[in-house]
Fold:
Amino acid sequence: GAGVSQSPSNKVTEKGKDVELRCDPISGHTALYWYRQSLGQGLEFLIYFQGNSAPDKSGLPSDRFSAERTGGSVSTLTIQRTQQEDSAVYLCASSPGSDRGGGYTFGSGTRLTVV
Amino acid sequence: QKEVEQDPGPLSVPEGAIVSLNCTYSNSAFQYFMWYRQYSRKGPELLMYTYSSGNKEDGRFTAQVDKSSKYISLFIRDSQPSDSATYLCAISATNKLIFGTGTLLAVQP
Structure:
């Protein structure tokens, strides 16, 4: 597609349930990022995938969070046993390579509400 | 201390005003600086991208970096209601961008 596609756009889940968030990057973009944006906070880095290299998971806040990228394209962010503090907008971005930030394209995000 | 600090605002200005948005950062090794604009319920979009110190102009927008004081600025001339959005400064670090909290700008017609 022309841009980064994220689904669902909105998700309401009960505390303790698992959720999966999906990201379809721009075709041909080798780098993929996940960020979290909480109310009143800037974007918080979660994880970075680059080609076939091991992902940089240094931003994942706890072991309840995991992500995978299949075939170098689609990525799924999974949050297990969701907590209320997980409520946020989860943004995915892709770029042509491991650039210095000038090539990022963001999706519109998934708004997650944990009740 | 946060790596990037940004006044969250909100900032309200009349149409046609000059807007100044600012961030400070802590690590003098940073070299690549960006400004993103984010409309409500949308992802951020890149507005300006600068390397090292100096000014960069694009239409009504000017980005300024002062590495000696670790200060980055975005100026918007002749502001328009369509400029109403959240503006986020960002700095390139290894494998990621470090973002400020964003400044909410409202341009009143």
Notes: Chain A has no helices and ten strands.
